[in-house]
User: What shape does this take?
Amino acid sequence: MAGTKRTMERTRAPGRDRYDRREAIAGYLFISPWIIGFLVFTAGAMVYSLYISFGDYNLATNTARPTGVDNYARLFEDPRVAVSLGNTLFYAVLAVPLEIVFALVLAMLLNRVGRGAGFFRTVYYLPKMTPPVATAAMFFLLLNGNNGAVNQFLRLFGIEGPQWLVDPAWVKPSIVIMTLWTVAGTMVIFLAALKNVPAELYEVAALDGAGPVRRFFAITLPMISGAMFFNVIVLSIAAFQVFDQAFILFWRDQSNSSPEASLFYAIYLFQQAFRQFDFGFAAAMAWLLFVIIMIVTVIQVKFGNRFVYYEGER
Assistant: This one.
């Protein structure tokens, strides 16, 4: 009987193999546009940028004169690289935790809404759809130090608001406030995670006398720790590449009157590449940023993964 079964399997194997090959070919054909796009526009561009980072790139002739590691040495000699990197790090440390907390609070509020939940989700998500230029223009009016709506509101309580967009101490917090306007993407991920938390856990905890705070830390946070872990990594990567808000508010023209506190790393990289046309140095800056993001991400994965609850583990 066993021999007959093995014979039948050997007889059917070629047909199955042909079917599997056809399935694999069909799958690769479907994803081939993405593969080609990745190889040409991402992997290819990265390899080429690494090549020109070791040279003096000429845009007119599309050639790079080899200069060795001079561009990388300039990274440690140019004081504005350190300033922009420090501003970016400060922004990331301030923005990421606030985005996580704000998005989680919004998600928990939406999770409690019964009737009209779809309406409120749409309203909360609309700021994410706002173009960065419109967002910057709106916050320029809101945060204007002289007659902005925020300072006028504070004056009602006898508080004289700061010069949000001029005072170096308040420039980066102002940009963080603008960033909080677009946390809807993070909020949606948290909301989906909250929907997957079994209601039975809350019922049992309530019967045991656990209050709302205890239930939040003992049930909610562990059960959504995977979404929390993902959001922290994604937001950290995005924070190191912050560009739109600060560029539109402070650096859209070529004057040097903008505060140094608003000079983020991606903005200085843009200036070197597309205003100074020093593409070799800009490529070296890009690779330094890539290495920094990789190091931060590896650290987050190594230490943050310990606090993530996986349902199949005990």
User: Anything to note?
Assistant: DSSP finds 14 helices and two strands in the chain. The longest helix spans residues 2-52.
